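Section handout 9: paired folding examples.
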Amino acid sequence: MTYSDWGGRLVTFPEDRARHYRESGMWSDDPTGRRLHQIAHRFAERTAVISAEGSMSFAELDRRTDQIAAGLIRLGLNRLDPVIFQLTNRQETVLAWYGCIKAGLVPVATLAAHRMHEIGHVSRKVGAVGHIVEVRTAGFDLVEFAREHATGHPSIRHIITVGDESGRDQPGVTRLEDLGLETDPVAARSLVEQIEGQTDPLDVAAFQLSGGTTGVPKVIPRIHAEYWNNALLYAQRLGWDEHSRVAHLIPIIHNAGISCGLHAAHSVGACLVLATADAPAAFELMARTEATEVLIGHGHYQAVLTHDFDKARTSLRRVVLSGAKVPPELFDRVDDGAGHWAGQLFGMSEGLLTVTPLDSPAHARLTTVGTPIASDDEISILEPGAENELRDGGVGELCCRGPYTIPGYFDAPEHNQNAFTSDGFYRTGDLAAITVIDGKRYLSIEGRIKDLINRGGEKVNAEELELLLLEHPGIANAAVVAMPDPRLGEKACAYLVSVDGEPLLLKAVQEHLAQLGVAKFKWPERLEWVPSLPHTNVNKIDKKRLRAEIAAKLLAEADAHGVVA
């Protein structure tokens, strides 16, 4: 077998490191679909997935995804064809993911909320051949969007829908629910095994997306050798087994959804309880299915503090918190010393995952994000902008490399020159420190260098949004900064300078972004019109000052509202 380097656009691991990861057991020779099949054979009758749509055993999941893979192949899709995913958390999403993986296709993990600005760029970058969309998502017609996107696209040939219960035929559209139904399971398994026989461990298994530090998101290639193992290491760190029931609320097609939810649960034969972002409904599903584990992102911190969470916590053993500094009251809510354990996760689509070890003292679980999950993970805290390593306790840029941290973004040679150190460490852009507790070195996240706004786990790139705002003829200058939000952590606030002195309404600015096809979660949610933007003594826009200004304004407004109330 010979892996594809995508015409030189894929950055491969240096041979010495690749050889070490194989020898240490961090990498596997088996393709991802085969790993699922092995687990399904071992735990055939155990429940693999529970969602609002129903449940499915491992045997059923394995058999149906074999058929879907066969259907995709017979539809004309070829091994390594990229397929755009725009799906929410539902059982068919799991079927679509594994069906594509088994067919040797490469899922491209976009969001249902993405629009033409993001999808158009990413699909052309990877040469997407297929586009899988959900029929009903928050009032937006993704099927029509997929048709519009395919018009004039150089490579899109197939649109596949999920959730179309009408059964009606649409020209140029295939229902996922129909794929492979006529295929004998034995024949489908044989076809999948043929594809697996052609798959090299270094082949791309999936494309994830970065939060986007400059312009639209960068493409992150994850390979078969490491992707399933990455999830397995996470599950093992948390002590999961076939008796675990793992609840997941955030988008499953995110890297966190795959590595910490779908693949992680299934790597040990555990059941995935696939919930949605609607907290009351998610907690109800968790209670009904007796979920034992859950990952809580920052967007659900407030919900955990409500009584709705009480019904879910009865069966919970472990709660992993991720996305922002954990308030002590939240930690105490989920870690009560009565059988409920709380820890933290820090991770990125580019690779590195750190998770709290189960035996860590409460102080370490509250104040740090744990330790790397793989013995071959390497982390280094460097002086920002340089390659000088800092001593433990010093705050600098977190840099990392390891068996599942990418050696380079896909088709981004210029960006890669600055995103990696001279010895191959990925520059995360996060400010961090090593904190020593009881003789163990834990990682603490202290902020970030990158100009990103973390809106409930979704990353909004300030520079990208500023450039889009400046396309409006009425805006002369723009600076986008994070403003604090009690529920989501941060939202985007745009400081704007008007061309003619007349400010625009927020609705007009949002309509401008909608016309450009920008995902709604990126839109600014507050405008501050100013005569000019402040600058530092080196003539850069003083965003630190703007962030402090909007935080103070929000605090004053809250105080005033409290007095009135």
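Moving on to protein 2 of 2.
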Amino acid sequence: MKSFNELVGDLSDPTSRQALRSMQRGIEREALRIEKTAHLAMDSHPEALGSALMHSRITTDYSESLLEFITPVFENIDELVEDLTYTHAYSVQNLNGQQLWPVSMPCYVGDVADIPIADYGSSNNGKMKRLYRKGLTYRYGAQMQIISGVHFNFSVSDDLWSRLYELSDKALNKESFISESYFGLIRNYRRLVWVLPYLFGASPALCGSFIKDQETTLPFEKIGKGTLYLPYATSLRMSDLGYTNQEQDNLDISYNNLSSYLDGMNAAINMPSANFAKIGVKVDGEYRQLNANVLQIENEFYSPIRAKRVAKGNEKPSESLARAGVEYIEVRALDVNPYSAVGIEKSQIRFLDMFLLNCLLQPSASSDQTEEAEIAANLQAVVLEGRKPGLKLSQNGTDITLSQWLDTLFDSLAAIAELLDEGDDGEYQQALVYWHRAVVNPGETLSGRIMSKLTEEQVDHSQWVKQLAQQYYQELNGFPISDSVLARYKLDAKTSLEKQAATEAIDEINFDQFLSDYFEH
């Protein structure tokens, strides 16, 4: 196995550098629809946005109120962000005055029992998607499910894979080499995942109403009327208040290779849960969840990164991976960036490019349970007190300060930035300099900037976010969309509704049989 420095040297020729630059990316951004009062919108998914079941760019996640904007795959960052912006603008211009909540943690929810679960129509597939979300409600409560995030889909070019394979010992065939290399990336990502909430975590504070009756041992402090915060927190979204599932703590999902991962996932979706069995599956003739297993389906597995392949037909995610290996990875540890109308900035995308390439090119040993515990502890420490002066993490069992670890990482990223940039002062090097300010001064992280705003002005988090929502509404509502782009969005909406109607018209088996066939297969 070549060292990182050796690989960087091998990839420094013009052809290899172009292969490196030809990364492909896609973004999925979640955002709650809110009324002008900033309370959660309770109406159905707007018809002007098309069918949430069939639309390729505009769908819903857990709730009718939780929009999800999905870009196609792009090689060019400017085109990627432009596409995401058009989707935001078209949507906002068709929300009848409703706005988008521009942070991850919700507020002004009222009675959580009223949160509208997403409705995908009367087809069997649509009913299954809704029932899965109903199961999530029974299992974890609706409040957790309306937390928003940004997902970043990433793959490297076929040309780069050919070059890396050529530089390898060729002990595996190329398809297996690609899959195992992506799993190497995933293991290194997990070791360094704390970096993302440190730099990009944007939920150090939240609306006190989010806690409501939840029990928490977190030592919250208070600003204004109802803002709760932790002085050095970065991403409460990724704490126990956010995406947590104690039932999954006992799952043994290995990332050491594709085969082990698939075995672990197969065991997880077939593992009965005594707690979830108490809910019941079908009670008095009405379904409450898809099944009583630890995972109803694979998507319920909460992980800050996923190995992915585009599915064919009705393939489950693991079936796609088993068929042809890993095609791309999905980064799921990103808070919504409140300083962007679309939830993410170009400098973040460039940092993610470098970060993920570093994870790919660095050696990646297998992981064991001791290291997994270390990974979890580091992430928890950064999520809750990442900006604490002198904070220490654990690296291979040895204490190291967060700033020392980051300095070492940024040295590696600098070598990658030079390969990616055409000149000596290109956009990747500029992005690295920009985010290195947050290494030198934690106040320059997203969470640090937010806390400075709230504490210096003694403003409630909810009021600040409400002002941002109004600002971005004005920006997106006035965003110019050309006639040709507008026509495309209108056609996509119309076509998606027609596809849903056609699907509903041809369902020939009852839902019980549909579910039985799905899980038997």
